[in-house]
From TrEMBL:
Entry annotated with the keyword Oxidoreductase: yes
NADP-dependent oxidoreductase domain boundaries: 13-296
Record keywords, A-Z: Oxidoreductase
InterPro entries: AKR, Aldo-Keto_reductase, NAD(P)_OxRdtase_dom_sf, NADP_OxRdtase_dom
Upper taxonomic lineage: Bacteria, Pseudomonadati, Pseudomonadota, Alphaproteobacteria, Rhodobacterales
PANTHER family: AFLATOXIN B1 ALDEHYDE REDUCTASE, ALDO-KETO REDUCTASE YAKC [NADP(+)]
Protein's name according to its UniProt entry: Aldo/keto reductase
SUPFAM superfamilies according to UniProt: NAD(P)-linked oxidoreductase
Length: 319
């Protein structure tokens, strides 16, 4: 696999998001998750991303049991599910969460630690100072921010260099192209794209409306409820036809498009099973391919918002 820079390390251009190990998109089990991690490593994936909230620590526990030490590992803290859903960025809380994550991961440090969402009433400079102290203490290789604006990134980076920003970015979520991807490039910060496959919309087969009520959050996500869901399936169908015509997997082409948007971008697709990993690799796009994909799926084509209102509360909006 081709390599890209993430902090001081070179990692595989495609990383792995381990949210699904927490059971948030469907049933899973430890053995299946461990086999999936083995397959990811065999495919050349060397950057792994998780968070304390994924399965309320379950994803981290599985990665800790896997035990690989040659993987560049990131985890996150800052979201409290509640109710009500809220965030915390104070130093005491961050330190407590980090220690709990390290215990589950069976590590004494982590290469990258994100603040999952920013707490608006704590100056980002104070937050950056907290993260800088944890870096100096050897607990973190670097720190990152998630779902932030370019202005927040610049303020934090001026206090202590930011390693990575993780925001949603895919063919149907294009907001980061309005300033954030450019700011990351300018500052030498990696842009880590989560949900690059549209939470399954750009998977092997068209999705069905069989999401688990109360568990799979797509069941109430605006893009996955009717009439938006059917409209989105119809909008993506010509892209699926193009992939079949060109011999690409749908996931492989969607990831190749993300990778083509900048050499500092690292997508982190996720899956519950090793079987889907092979769909991620192999698509090579030229300029004409990219133009045709963007003709079929122009910026803003998606029907519905990417989050419900309750999930947008601490997402920074800047356009």
């Amino acid at each position: 696999m081709k390599q890209r820079r993430l902090g001081t390390r070179e990692v595989g251009a495609i990383g792995f998001g381990a949210m699904s190990f927490g059971g948030m998109f469907g049933p899973t089990d430890e053995a299946t998750s461990l086999a999936c991690l083995d397959a990811a490593a065999d495919a050349g994936i060397t950057h792994l991303d998780t968070a304390d909230i994924y399965g309320m620590g379950l994803s981290e526990e599985i990665i800790g049991k896997w035990g690989r030490r040659d993987i560049h590992l990131a985890t996150k803290c800052g979201i409290l599910n509640g109710p009500p859903r809220t965030v915390r960025n104070d130093e005491a809380y961050i330190r407590k969460c980090l220690e709990q994550s390290l215990r589950r991961l069976k590590r004494d440090h982590v290469e990258l630690y994100y603040i999952h969402r920013r707490q608006p009433d704590i100056p980002v400079e104070d937050l950056a100072g907290t993260m800088a102290r944890l870096v100096q203490e050897g607990k973190l290789g670097g720190y990152g921010l998630s779902e932030v604006s370019p202005s927040t990134l610049r303020r934090a980076h001026a206090e202590h260099p930011v390693t990575a920003v993780q925001n949603e970015f895919s063919l149907w979520t294009r907001l980061p192209q309005l300033g954030l991807i450019q700011a990351c490039r300018e500052l030498g910060v990696a842009f880590v794209a989560f949900s690059p496959l549209g939470r399954g919309m750009f998977g092997r087969a068209p999705l069905k409306r069989d999401f688990r009520t109360g568990i799979d959050f797509r069941d109430t996500n605006p893009r996955f409820i009717e009439p938006n869901f059917s409209a989105n399936l119809a909008a993506v169908a010509p892209f699926r036809a193009l992939c079949a015509e060109r011999g690409w997997t749908v996931a492989g082409a969607a990831l190749a498009w993300v990778l083509a948007q900048g050499d500092h971008i690292i997508p982190i697709p996720g899956t519950r099973t090793a079987d889907h990993l092979r769909d991620w690799l192999g698509a090579e796009l030229d300029a004409a391919d990219i133009a045709e994909i963007e003709r079929l799926l122009p910026a803003g084509f998606a029907h519905g918002d990417r989050y419900g209102d309750h999930q947008m509360a601490f997402v920074e909006r800047y356009c």
